[in-house]
Amino acid sequence: MFSKATNAAMASFMIVLFSSSVYSQEAAVEPPGQSAEAATPPANRKRAKLFPDDVPGLQNFAIEAYQNGEYMRFVQANIKLREQRPYEQQYMIGMVIGSALLGKQTTAYNYMHIMQQQGLSYDFNVSDDSESIRGTEVYDYLNGLLIEAGKPVGEAREAFTLPATSVHPETISWDDSRGRFLVGSIETGDVMAISPGGEVEVLLEATDENGLLAITGIAVDEKNKRLWISSAGVPGFVGLKPQQLGRGALFEFDLASLALVRRYEIPADGLLHVPGSLVITPAGDVYFIDRTVPMVFRKLASSDAIEPYMASKDLTALKDLALSDSGEILYLADGAMGIMVVDLVKSTSAMLSAPDSLNLGSISGLMYSEDSLVMMQNGITPQRIMRLNLSPDGKSINEVSPLAIALPFFDAPAYGTVVDGAAFYFANGNQPGQTGEPEQTLVLKTPLILSEPIVPPDYRKFESDKAAKEGKSNN
Fold first, then answer.
1. Distance set, CA 215 to CA 251, 300, 421 (Å)
2. Are residues 339 and 386 in the same domain?
């Protein structure tokens, strides 16, 4: 059976994710360059080919192999999981643990180094399964850096706190015409206007007349004086009727009077839809994601209906989206696969080109500001806010700048908006408190340019070791 610590780390294997096609290849256990099949004894090769193709099946296969002491099969399952989900932290941990159980120190250290370079944090001392790789200078160095990566660093301060009655807010936008933040609630279907000082006013309520349900996206079109809202029938919405489950719509309101201009239903196709975050191009076209089906819908300014814009087999579940200032490039944040870049002019798409040292998994919010993307991640350790400085064409990352990491405020930070050079976002992920009662949601403010840049743990250790050596030599 699992050790206590490993059991906790591997529990997330049971999470059911959408499967997707393999798009990368992972090296097998050492020696380098040896394939997973070649590393398998001939008598077992037929069995090794019978791995499930889907992520949930591979997760269960990995757990069963571990429990049965079949550690080579456990590692092979993790290799295949990494091929399909290259950013998932638990599969990297699985590779370290599996390699340690096979006595493969070099491979274990390699994956520890990959985790360290991606800024991930984990203490392998808590797992009994890592005993075979401990006690070396390399292990102590890497594990120390992995622990150090989980310590708080960066900048954030409280902007305001939402009232306890505002349950499960999942979208925030800035309304310059009112000088207010607009926040939407999943549970009540309210749209609130909140001053920078925290004063709250309910602008809109879900009623039978306007047809609003859970509020899942808000965008302000100052140019055309419109307020756009995406709304969905989800179980968290109070008073949800059975026939409303999985139904979604886009709502167009007059920005000043808040009069309903029109409601645009997602065409019925037999699928459950949850429209989410939305953006508006300079031409007045509206694009929004579907959180249950990995699709993007749009409502053109010249049209009176919603239409499917794109879907991709490379996506699993869309979390958020952002739009370049030119309105020509759309960025789609996928919970497992990273960021897809969609050229709205050329109608082409590709995954955002990123350095190997950047982990793009578990994105919980995405914003665009001044040729950069601001990314929140709450499903990895540590939770963090990162600024990704883009190339001139907007399709690759030139530089990565951490903004806030593992701060005490963070409890699944998610969704945000950029105002005057700072990101405003939900700090505590819109979850109920420990008692199950509504917990007040804290909105944090983090500047996009820090007063002091964050120095990675390995550089900090290098400088401290260097200073210590200089001190000894001076003595």
1. 10, 21, 26
2. yes
Mutual angle of helices 105-117 and 137-148, in 10-degree steps: 30
Enclosing domain of residue 451: 156-459
Q: What is the pLDDT of residue 9?
A: 39
Residues 342 and 331: their CA atoms lie apart, in Å, by 6
In a domain, 468, yes or no: no
Find all residues with CB under 8 Å of 385, minimum gap 6, and list them.
154, 156, 374, 375, 376, 377, 402, 403, 404, 405, 413, 423, 425, 446
At 110-159, the pLDDT tens digits run 999 999 999 999 999 999 999 999 999 999 999 999 999 999 999 999 99
The token pair at 161 is 């706190």
How many CB atoms within 10 Å of residue 73? 22
Distance CA 102, CA 94 (A): 12
Query: Burial, 339: exposed, middle or buried (Cβ in 10 Å; 0-12, 13-18, 19+)?
Result: buried
3-class SS string, 384-438: EEEEEEECCCCCEEEEEEEEEECCCCCCCCEEEEEECCEEEEECCCCCCCCCCCC
